[in-house]
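Could you help me review a protein record that somebody else here produced? Here is the record exactly as it was handed to me:
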Amino acid sequence: MVYIDYLRRWYGWISLNKTKDWILDYDSDYSTHQPFYQKMSLHQLKPNPKGVLERLKRNVKEMATAGERSFGPTPVGAREYLETLTPLLEVSESQFSKVDYKQARAYYLFMNYVFMDEALMPMRTMLSGHPNFLGDLKAIAGAVAFLYPDHPEAKLFADHFDKSMELNMRYHIRPDVDTWNAKGGRSTENLSCYTWAFLRPTLKTSFLLHHYYDGKNRMLHPNVSAYGNWLLNTLTSPLLELGRKESDTSSRCSFEKTEYSGFIKYVWTGVEIL
């Protein structure tokens, strides 16, 4: 089993034939992105350049001994990138030395390439899942485009996230079945937990790219309207069947009390645009 892990690691995740093409450094000493987390008093984040650099370095070093059953790159383990590391990187940027900033950036980019690769969670040769795990990993590519918009492959990173959303919405949201008189929109994830686990990283990244990168709303894919209606009418009375009007505010009531309310209102706005 140890030999299998060795093959998986050095010929799958971080094969030299791949890593030689990864762009980990480029002609930019500091990022040019628009600040978001610096303006959010809600988080009360304190700059910690030394701490965030050490965490990023640790993650890259662990790839040298990573195995598929333990200490390897996983969707759950990668959640720290959106929840902690991305905000910390932004609020700590001004306190990095030039050398440390470029080192931290290289560590983050290295892991982003790992997360994007087909060897971990594929999107081209097959579609990996579950939807929330796919969202956990692929949302990081969009966060990198937000943090490093001057990277030569920033658009590729944003498009990678965009494609993951398109595939997730196409294959993990159930379609209408006219024969059964059944309306589509239900996610393959359960409503009580993993539906929200999918929305949390994907909405964060879509929000950042929409408002702080290129103005594109990457939630607007086929099935998102059906998905929004499923969320609305599962969490409340079947409002559409009861003749809900555009002026009604009841459609938002069930969302207001969740920790995701700000992001849910954002995606619902996208649904209304359609």
Remarks:
- The two ends are 50 Å apart (CA to CA).
- DSSP finds eleven helices and no strands in the chain.
